[in-house]
Amino acid sequence: MNPAYSVIVFTTASGAGYGLLIGLAAAAALGLVPIDALFGFLGLGVALALITTGLLTSTFHLGRPERAWRALSQWRSSWLSREGVAAIATYVPAGALGFGWVFGEMLPHQIAAGAGLSVACAFATLWCTGMIYASLPTIRAWHQPLVAPIYVAMALATGSVLLILMLAAFGYPLRWAAAAIIASAALAWILKARYWAAIDSAEKTYTAESATGLGRFGTVRPLDPPHTQPNYVMREMGYQVARRHAVKLRRIAALLLFAVPILAGALLLLNLAAPVQIAIAALAAVSTAVGVLTERWLFFAEAEHIVVLYYRGGTA
Amino acid sequence: MAKDEPDIALSERSADEIKTTTCYMCACRCGIRVHLKNGRVRYIDGNRDHPVNKGVLCGKGSAGLMTHYSPSRLRAPLKRVGPRGSGEFEEISWDEALETATSWLKDVRARDPKKLAFFTGRDQSQALTGWFAQQYGTINFAAHGGFCSVNMAAAGLYTFGGSFWEFGEPDWDHTRYFMLFGVAEDHASNPIKTALGKLKQRGVKFVAVNPIRTGYGAIADEWIGIRPGTDGLFVGALIHELMRTQRVDLDYLARYTNAHWLVVDSPDAADDGLFARNAEGKPLAFDKTTGALTDATRTDIAPAMTGTFTLADGRQVRPSFALIAERFLTDEYAPDTVAVATAVPADTIRRIARELAHAAFEETVTLDIPWTDHTGRRHEKTVGRPVSMHAMRGISAHSNGFHTCRMIHLLQIVLGSIDCPGGFRYKAPFPKPIPPPNKPARATEPGAPLKGGPLGFPQGPEDLLVEPNGAPQRIDKAYSWDAPIAAHGLMHMVITNAATSDPYPVDVLFMYMANMSWNSSMNIPAILKHLTATDAETGEYKIPKIIYSDAYSSEMVAYADLILPDTTYLERWDCISLLDRPISGPGGPADAIRQPVVAPDRNVRAFQSVLLDLGARLGLPGFVTETGTPRYPGGYADYIVNHERSPGVGSLAGFRGQDGKSYGRGAPNPNQLESYIAGGCFHEYHLAPEQLYYKHANKAYLEWAKDVGFMGAATPITFQLYLESLQKFRLAARGHGAVTAPASHRERVDKFFDPIPFWYPPLDNAPGDDTGFPFSAITQRPMHMYHSWGSHNGWLRQITAENCLYMNRERAEALGISDDDWVWIKSAIGRVKGRVRLMEGVNPDTVWTWNAIGRRAGAAGLTPDAPEAVRGFLLNHLITELLPEREGGYRFSNSDPVTGQAAWYDLRVHIEKVAPAEAGETAPQFEPIKSPALAEVEIAR
Amino acid sequence: MTSLPEQTQKKLGLVIDLDTCVGCHACATSCKEWNASGYSAPLTDQDAHGADPHGAWLNRIHSYEVGDGAESRTVHFPRSCLHCETPACVTVCPTGASYKRAEDGIVLVNPDTCIGCKLCSWACPYGAREYDYEDGTMKKCTLCVDRIYNETFAPEDRIPACVRACPTGARHFGDLGDPSSAVSQLVQEREGFALLPEIGYRPVNRYLPPRPRRDGHSPDVAATVAPPTRGTGSLADQFFAWADKALAR
Q1: B residues 839-878 lying closer than 8 A (beta carbon) to C
Q2: What's the mean pLDDT in B189-214?
Q3: Assembly ipTM
Q4: Which of A85, B665, B763, C33 has the lowest CB atom count within 10 Å?
Q5: Mutation to test the A interface, candidates B798, B802, B818, B922, most A Cβ within 10 Å
């Protein structure tokens, strides 16, 4: 699938934003952070900014952005519609939480409610986004049970790195967050590694022979294409990345997105000086960003759509 | 409709107005309906009533909208202001353009009319353009048939009075076996497609003989991947097998052919190899009932087809069929012998021969149609041998195409399958006498019209257009010893010959719709040099003046001096006439018109109207009245209705006479065009059932054909298996007769003017494959493109904007070449770079590409980085227009030695991978052409 | 709405005969031409005269070679929407623009409500949906819904543009839900097949397979044993002997 930069930015940005939101909300409910106005403003601000940037990017990526509101109507059948509903729904508790955090004094049960609903809505949104991909039988690499869970895990992993950067910058206790990074990055790594193994070993049961029904005559090989320059379908779904290229990028992604944050988390368990902690957190954030962009790029680039069988023959 | 579903407008009108006309996306001439909305073309579909396509429409026709609204349309007359090839033009008025053209043509006509070379890329309107040349007085005229398919036309017209070319078609409804030779797409496009669909339904076996398996070959029941140029061996072997297994229709031969005519066997005599004739000039036959020699054309004899007989003067004679049988029953044409050269297994050849015989002799078709033959004998039923064939460029575009095509006709004839139910049927105005009686006209004094049309059918050396020393009189050397039976001229040689003054220079080259500086020429780099070559002393171009007319900005535009912009096919009047290229079917003659469906939105004029205007300005007889005013002031529409080529006979055959009720002959009817339009822009005449078959010997048909002027007399047509006129040329090469061949041409004419068809290797191919050029290189026409007409169509080029070289997978892999590799394609004269695609369905010794996809950067209204220019390529650059020097330095054109047909497919090449840095872009690259200002396009919504 | 109808009254669709298709693209261009100003209007083109021409089409024609060596064949393969019974392209649509008509099963895109998110094209394994880069919405075969019920058309013209144009008669239109319809009988007779049935979308269109060849490789063509030549002497002599006898009768 074409790794369109806008979609990659959208999903990684909003994923990190939801992860950060979940982290902040949970921290607030569990009393792991002070309910400080500036911290709340910056923290939830960054989270909601990332989320909103992602949503706006994807909206303007639409052919008819002015009609985007219609996308909320088909939640009964469409994961994309459900994602839209959940995303908008998330603003309510997150907004309330933020408002209370910044401007008011919230009672514990109010914090718990706002945080709880924010976390629930954020999880729902992340799950729906993952399911958009996972529900498509036409793309074997996406039609995997691990896709939606990984999407959530990535959000938590990337969000937790942003969270710790904020904690470090504000000088708040952060060892709990370091543990969270280690846990979420490790979980994400395990899931992603299993995912890669799964798609590498998946049996490619779709063939050009069955797609055309001409297998009865033997191997099917394209002779003349329907058009000598790529059409929309081939631009959107015809992307190919070389195997050895992909393997290299996987290693880079794993290093930057999982290994480095885990290391950073480990270091942040130690009682290092504040500027060092900030530096470590910042580096981890940069590494995570590059890593998740690479991972997301691969998620698209390594995904093969069945339609290419008609254009290239072979299996999918 | 469910309540949540949106409301859809289900019955919107497709158009404000629907007009019929004739398509011109190729030369098939299907009937179309043009749907207009707000005065713009919205949609084009097929006219269900039209006899050619009956409502269907091919990929090109359905994209006509984008050809009409193309941004490569010329928009005004142009005068060249930069050097030729620079593309620098100035827009001028029609007045200036026509005054310039008139002054050029007037000057030439007064001095030496043959210094006007007038050649048209399309044969449509040939009745008008040829007539213009005739009235002007120049012999230097032809349409494009010389580089297209004259081999098919000539072979057919000189053998059975019709042709594959487009004056005949299989009896699709009744045939039981169909063979298609050398066709990827022909411009009987939709008829062949429709027919194949029907054959499939009826379970009729369809055999495709073609080096390449695409298109029609894909759905054929059997594909024969023959080596290019060897079809004559294959067909010869089929004839061999049929004769050997005694499966020939002797009765048919006796009735309808010259098989029994006696040939003189007298080496060194002036009539050796000619028919023995009586005092009245009738050919002789031996009548077995009387045991005597008699008039072979008598219908009450039992002629011998074998044996040797003696003339009164003691010389020996033999029936021509015996000579033919002797040729084909040799080892040379045995299936086992030809199998290697053709790449067709001997078993396959034997099997096909058996299948043909089975269909012809065991599956005869009997129709309940009584008919009377020319002897007056009545037949209660019409019986036929239902084997049919069609052949086109794969046979034609070889230097052995004429003889190969004659062999195919011989095959059809020994199977008794010409114009019978299930066989190959004539389309009016054919059959015609063999050959048609008109001879090419000779030059006359300046200011006088020629005494006949410039093109014709020589029957002997006395008909050639040569000087007393044998030198050619025409610029293209047609009807000279280089190409005696050049029925369609040799347009592909005009530029070369004019630029090299061989035989002489011309003053004005006037061309219509022919992309001669690109895909319609061989050896393009040389042609471009010729077009821009200047005289060393005067500095003037060697071809001083070039006038070119076209609707679109092709590569040729940049090399002309004066451009006369044409309309698109939807903006013009036109006639598809029995006088040139009608749309007849076997059931009767038919002709058609085009009508302007929309008006031009730019300063262009229909070429035919412009030609009439020029003719009037020049005062050409027939183009002006007695008082010197234009005879057809209303332009082409006026001419179509009012011109009479002979009394009562005009462009259109239908609705003639003041009352519009006459067919074929009648006074001009001022409402004729309206009547055609009312009928869908065509008119059909339906023959009576008893006229439908065996037209060459059918009394009712022959008498009618005479009445309507298709034939001069109701004489039956006798198929000329043994073609005596060829022998006449041969005798002249041996020094006999008043007009003999010059020494330089004797051997060649002696060899190739064999009255019995034979196979020989293509002239450009040295024998054997160890010449360094082991592959045959050919092209195929894609079904959705027509020559270079499709590249500027914004839809069709989305399908194909670049081409590649197809190779046989096994052969390519043996050379270390893989899919998508770039290779050098090398011939004896040059090399071209292209990308490779491997395939199974191609003869192993053949490489090929789609025709005319490669374009020069900047042409056709495309951007210079268009794929057509960057990666698309032509094979034309590799094909020499002149064969290597013979002794004495003479170079014959790369053409069939009988007809002058351009031998495109004789090309032989060598393939090798490019160096890595060379991949990705084609070569040669030419300087991008600057395009003159073109018409704006407003995309309709 | 993106919910699929429980059942449709008819299952209109196409039957495409791969034994008769010659790959001429008539169906592709006539479709493009009809729909450029029909229900699907506009169908735009990008860079139509430049280096990278592409545009929205609803029907694409592939050619394939199948098999190896002497057994191989060339097959031309038109590909367009198969108007599936339970397609995900309908259910994934977030706005309900993608829907399947209850009356006749035609799957359509509502041009007024499509937001151009392209998810439907991701869900389609057949590449039937193309995004129009200028119009910003998704385009697909409409089974010429604006022709098949069109009362301003002659009855014989109330068929999809591609079916009317096809010169070889390789395309057929009708109700695949009615076993007695011409198309259903054709499918039965020729053993028509669906594409990728294992995905579960239940396509309605059917393809008719190429028929067996009738050449030297096919078992039902009689063995090519050359019949014995009768008589003595050279082939020509034998032939003349026969001809003399034959003509004497």
Answers
A1: 839-841, 861-863, 865-867, 870
A2: 97
A3: 0.95
A4: B665
A5: B798
